[in-house]
Structures are given as structure tokens and as C-alpha cells.
Amino acid sequence: MPPAPARLICPPLVQYSPQEQAALAAELRAHPDLWEVPVFLTDYGNERAECRAVEGKSPRPHL
User: Fold this and answer.
1) What digits encode the pLDDT tens for the residues 50-61?
2) For burial by CB atoms within 10 Å, which of 1, 7, 11, 24 has the most?
């Protein structure tokens, strides 16, 4: 019998409230000199979206 197909498993994602997300967005707007932080956050967001896709969950809307 052939082996069972591998199943990809992602670590659980931290859930951020809309208030936390809005606070982060406000902090980023208040500090336009932070060039690298938005790049890192975009990468992190992409990784989170990929984990949701692997788990078969729908993507979350951007705020």
C-alpha cells in the first residue's frame, strides 16, 4: 500500500483584534521614517495568508 500523502501543518496563528490592528496602523502612520517595518509586516502577512491557505481557511480582509 502506498504511503499516505504528507499533510502540511502550520503553527497556530495569533489572532489580533481590530483594535490592535488599528493601533498598529496608527503607529506606522505616525512614524513614516520606519522604512523596514512595513516590509517585514508585509512578509509576515503573506506568511499568515499562506498558513491560512494550507489549513483551508479563507483569507482575512485587509484593514
Assistant:
1) 988 888 877 665
2) 24
Is the CB of residue 63 less than 8 Å from the CB of residue 25?
A: yes
Indicate the number of domains in the chain. 1
* Sequence letter at residue 21: Q
Half-sphere exposure of 10 (CA within 13 A, CB side): 14
Q: Say which residue the cell 512578509 belongs to.
A: 43
Domain hosting 42: range is 18-54
Distance CA 55, CA 10 (A): 7
Residue partners of 42: CB distance under 8 A and separation at least 6: none
pLDDT in tens, 28-46: 999 999 999 999 999 999 9
